[in-house]
Amino acid sequence: MKSYSSPTKVSALGTAEPVTRSEAVADKIPVASASPSSSEIPTLYSEIRELVARSPREPELRAEIDRKIQQLRVLQEAEADALERRFEERLRLRSGTGWAHLQRLKELTSIDPSRFSWTGT
Question: How far apart are CA 17 and CA 11, in angstroms?
């Protein structure tokens, strides 16, 4: 059985912080609004179940079942793509936070970056 930990986010300083309830709820809203097809998925599952139940008596339904399954795949892939885009967007370094990240790295590693030559010599 898979266990789940509480969700975290990466702060501007590069540390993991717990996601607040309001952030978690806000994160769920864009997925539903960005993917109007998400309401179609349960409907397609119901239609497929009904067709599969009827298929032993009506073998000609196989083409309809295949078509519905293909529609379902397209919708699920679109929903997955939207989720992936949202996830990647959250990982991007926000403008103006680079210096804070470098300062935090310096604090965490206690290494003075001025000791290193970044010119490759």
Answer: 6
